[in-house]
Amino acid sequence: MPSRNSINKPKDTINQARKRASVSRKRAARARNGEFAPARSSEASTSGLPKSTALALYNGASQSGVLTTKTLSKKRSQKIERNKKYIARRKLDEERLLIDAQANAEESMHVDDEVVKQVEEPKKSKINTIKDALWSVIEDRSTESLIVDSTGEGTTLGGPSFF
Amino acid sequence: MYTCNTCSLQFPTAEDQRVHMKSDWHRYNLKRRVANLPAINEALFLEKVSKLTINEEEETPRKEVKNNKQITKKEQRRIEKEALLEKKKQLLEIAKQNMLKSYHEGTLNETNKVITSEKKETIVKEEEEVAKLSISEESKEEKKDEVENLTDDQLAERIMEEKLKNKVEIPLEVCLFCNKKFPYFDACITHMHKNHGFYIPEQKYLVDKEGLVRYMGEKIGLGNVCVVCDFQGRSIEAVRAHMLSKNHCRIPYEEEDEKLEISQFYDFSSTYDDISFGDDDGDWEDVEGEDVGDDDVEEEEEEDLPQQVSYNDGVELHLPNGTRVGHRSLARYYRQNLRPDQVLTEGQGTVIAAESRHLMTIADRGALLEKKRIWKNEKHHQDRDDRRAAKFINNQPHYRDQLLQ
Amino acid sequence: MELAVAPQDQDILLRTKNVINESVLNKYRLAGQVSQTALTYLTKLINDSYHLNQGPKLTTAELCLVGDSFLASYLENVYKSGVNSVNEKGIAQPVTIDVNSVNGGFGPEIDDEESKNFQYFEIGDIVTISLGCHIDGYTANLSHTLVIYPPGEEKDGELRPTGPLLGNKADTIIAAHIANEAVINLLGAALTPEKLPSIFNNNVGSVVTGSLIRQIVDEIATNFKCVVVPGSRVRRIRRFLAGQSEGVVAEKEYKGVVWSEADQEASLLEKASTSQELITLSDKQNLRGKGINQVSAIPTDDFVVTPGEVYIVDLKLASIAEFNEVGLVTLETLDGYTGKNHDKDSINIKPSIFVRDFAIQHTLKLRTSRQTLNKIDKTRSVYPFKLAHLSEKFPLDLKKLHVEGPESIKSDIDLVKKEIRNARLGLSEIINHHLAATKNVQVVKFLPLHHILNTANPTGTHGFDAANPTLPGLELPLPRLGVSSLKLKALLKKNSIVIPVAREQSTVVLVQQGISTGGRPELLRLTGGSKTSKPSWVHSNYQLDESKDIIKSLLQLIKLGQDKRFGINIRETQPVKLEHV
Fold first, then answer.
1. Which of C43, C450, C540 lies at the smallest CB-CB distance from A163?
2. I need a surface site. Which of B47, B153, C38, C214 has the fewest CB within 10 A?
């Protein structure tokens, strides 16, 4: 830690640390004196109170696992609550359906027709059709493998002289 | 046979013609001719005149009444004073015109170079009478409404009469300022130049020196007006005293109207060739530089046709020597230094003619400017943020004590 | 500010001045003669130094400069004074000497350091000489491909090559020659359409159309396993519009067949096409005319060759027989930086030929650039130029060169070098402001098709290569695959193989009846022909497949061209004997 007189002293850090220390000192003193809440101007005032009250205090589920310092917002907890309701209902429906199906199956043991799935070929874009066509040209060419040299005597131009 | 081309008339005698030339009708027709309008006959002219006078009679009193309601007494007095001054000025103007007229007549018939003062006086008087008549007519009309005005008019009349009475004819051989007499005219001029600083400007182009001096003499002798400033003395002595004390013994030749005032005694036509358009057409600006190429050709032609007149096509004045003179109001355009038109060779022309590209132009200059400003602003902000952020970067990996360095 | 030419002037410049009459024909003829003579001169120089071992061995840059000097000094003395004097005459195509795979534009400046690895030709090289000149805008361009043979043997008191050139280079030379002759015969047949073989008649009647020209050239190329290289064209030229600034200027009423990568793509698709859909897709015409505003500036094949026009037949062919795979023949532009490494063999050339773009106006900042631009505008008309042309010492004194040897003009060449250096400084600003466009040096490359098909092309058709302007309507090299020129350029870098190219270019005038000397309509061949552009001794294993109808008719047509009395009347401009110059 650089000295206070250093040119490079981390001013912000020092200031924050000092502030934090003084605040915590005060808080500790209050706690020692048995005052758990600071003096307030009125009953309704919430100043100085921790911002979030619900410290992983969600009670919907059994407390298992680790305790985290993560807080849940009110909105979030409501959402979880709501989703749980939906899940329960879905489960109920599924069970009922399963029972119905079983009953049906028991009633008439018919064999299902095999469902022929229409596999939809993705519609080719114009460029893809062209690409396919060109690939086919390449394949044709490589199957030729042997280049047939031209028969006949070929062509000769010019005569035996420089220019 | 004596004729008048303007009014298309014939006269049996020269006397008749002269009388006609002096008539208002003829003058009116002259003005019409200048304005490119056909001449009118006498009956129509008289009708017009009568109409005008009636209108004036009708309008003037009403105006007076209307105005009277709002004007305070003080202002009224001031207005009256102004009116009086205006009339005085008119009278002076008439006097000046008379002088010029006599002068012109003098030049026209060269035998009568010197006009007798009596003759001049008669003409002057005639004119004055006309003026007086008109003034008195006016005053008569005003009589009905106002009493005070009457006295003013009379005052003006009286002043005019006094002036004419006091009129001093200054001969050419007499100094304008100290009334000294000299044996001949040139000696007088040198005296005035040496002792009073009476410098005659642009003597090179001066054609009628005597006329100029006579005109100045008239100004002093008849009008009792200082040649330089607006001062008007009660008598010729007062004016002379003023001029001598203030050293106002020169011919003012700086302002345009000053130049115009005496321009008739000068002849600048010899300077037209080298285009110093000087004083009698100060309103025109020279734009010779515009077509240097044309000049050479046209000047050559000009030698054959010296009588070619200058003409004005509404925008530019074309002088006979080929120079074009543009109006001053367009000076900023003439002053523009535009790139000369690119002359394409045949090959370049062909390529351009066959070209069908449309080169992109900036669609909206304003929008582009706006966009550029925004970009500049953004860059500025970014730079500023960078600068601020850089303040808190500790680039030094290890502590180094300054004292130990 | 945009330049414009009044409509009546346009009519004069584009139509009246292009009507073939006696004086115009004379100018064309003289221009052709000058070009022909210059070609014989250059051929002689190369022949002397490489085959006969006489005279000095000039480098490519020197050959170019000497060739340009020849053209310029010859032209100085024609149409000089009197009633017939013309304002503009000069070099229409600076001498370029392209070796093997170089497609065009290789005419290095005398002080070019980058080209010093390519100063001399090797045995077995094929060398294309291109040049051209114009008198009053009436232009005659030519190109001819020669072969550099191994040392010859003495036979009949003359040094002769030991044997013909074989292999793919020979194929390309033969194909280019035959195609050129065939097209010229076809153009000649346009004068007397009744002599056109009946198989060439199309729905319009017996006329020579652009599509017919393309069909025949493509047919000849496939017979010799060649591909028509993109940029080849058979086009009508006009006064001052000899295709010198294709890509720069979008020329109105473009009339000509132009080969591009799109045509190769189409023919490949034709091979594969089974379904109707693909056939319509491979139709060559339907892709033209998109993306540009002026329809008439876009080259199409549906035009009819009419008498009284002048054509340039400029065909470049490259053989793909050696490749056992399908691919695309395309061009790669060499900038001064391509492949800049320690590889001595990679061609690394700065472009040295530029063409002025008059539509763009800009006031330059540097004094040297303004001076250079002034000089260009004053002396160089609308045709491509090299910096050496702007020099005071240009044209070089060739008499001195031949009488006293190359040492005598060394000081002149040094002066030219110095002036080039000064002009180059100014030129960079001119180029940066697009007042002039560079004529790029390009090499012909073979790109296997599977590389194109496998490539990811997320940007699609966006992105034109501004450094390589094309004719309007041909901006997209592979329009059906949607591969842009930039993508193609990127693909070329790694996967392509350089292939040799042969080029034959000639200018022909279709003289109508009444104006020609014989009274019959005749085709006046300004450049090329048996005298100057005689093919070198080459042999190919391939030949024209005479079982095909189209080839049969073509051979019939060529026979007609040789028949002086009843066939197509073709007259060639002869070069002046070098001793007289």
1. C43
2. B47
